[in-house]
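User: Could you go from structure to sequence for me? I need the amino acid at each position, not a summary. Structure tokens:
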């Protein structure tokens, strides 16, 4: 059923978000706000048991799951509905430009000596946290951006003015050879997850508010097939997500990095 990903979310999430949308939507409008407490009234009216974590309904549709087809079909051509924070316990349905960032298939995959501790590699799950661990232990943020970067905190939960509570998968700080300092919000995606403008924009707004003296460089990392890791530096321009740079890496034993590989890398930018 539409509105779910991998069939893992119960239909009550779909029913609640659809009813909230229907209660506010008028043909032709491109955005409207609603409050978290509305979920309780909707659940009671529909005879649905409200989840103990009400915010998970909106979090799921903001970052992990597709909105129902009945909602998506009301978007204007070339646009899509997103849900973004609009303050404490408030959200906003908004139409933005349709954007899909997927790894290119024509890029060279760079082999990197795998520095992941064996115990981590054996036990790391193939999800976002496992991906973040591999990125951290192999200093892929440093390699990708060409700076010295240090993990400051993962699962950073904080509030941002005008957005309410947000969560950043992991946040780094870094410095380059000229002494310029950076803050790097990192979002991790599974193999089939989509990069959306919502999370990138909120990550950047958080960094501007919390780290005003540091240059913000938003990064997204994603598992690909064949144990590859795609890395993107992203910006949001006119509500549309844009790629500044993209690289693909594969973590391998040093013995698998051949002289022919090194010759190719020497001729790359």
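Assistant: Here is the amino acid at each position, in order:
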């Amino acid at each position: 059923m539409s509105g779910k990903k991998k069939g893992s979310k119960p239909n009550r999430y779909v029913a609640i978000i659809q009813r909230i949308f229907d209660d506010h939507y008028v043909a032709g409008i491109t955005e409207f706000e609603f409050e978290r407490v509305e979920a309780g009234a909707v659940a009671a009216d529909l005879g649905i048991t409200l989840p103990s974590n009400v915010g998970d309904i909106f979090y799921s549709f903001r970052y992990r799951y597709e909105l129902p087809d009945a909602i998506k079909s009301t978007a204007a051509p070339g646009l899509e509905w997103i849900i973004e924070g609009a303050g404490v316990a408030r959200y906003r349905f908004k139409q933005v430009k349709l954007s899909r960032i997927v790894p290119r298939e024509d890029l060279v995959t760079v082999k990197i000596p795998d520095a992941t501790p064996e115990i981590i590699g054996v036990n790391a799950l193939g999800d976002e946290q496992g991906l973040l661990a591999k990125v951290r232990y192999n200093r892929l943020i440093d390699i990708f951006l060409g700076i010295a970067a240090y993990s400051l905190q993962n699962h950073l939960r904080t509030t941002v003015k005008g957005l309410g509570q947000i969560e950043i998968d992991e946040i780094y700080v870094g410095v380059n050879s000229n002494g310029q300092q950076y803050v790097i919000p990192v979002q991790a995606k599974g193999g089939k997850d989509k990069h959306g403008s919502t999370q990138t924009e909120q990550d950047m707004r958080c960094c501007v508010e919390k780290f005003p003296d540091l240059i913000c460089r938003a990064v997204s990392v994603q598992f690909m097939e064949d144990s590859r890791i795609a890395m993107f530096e992203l910006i949001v321009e006119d509500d549309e997500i844009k790629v500044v740079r993209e690289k693909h890496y594969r973590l391998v034993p040093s013995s698998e990095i051949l002289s022919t590989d090194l010759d190719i890398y020497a001729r790359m930018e």
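One structural detail worth keeping in mind: The mean pLDDT is 89.
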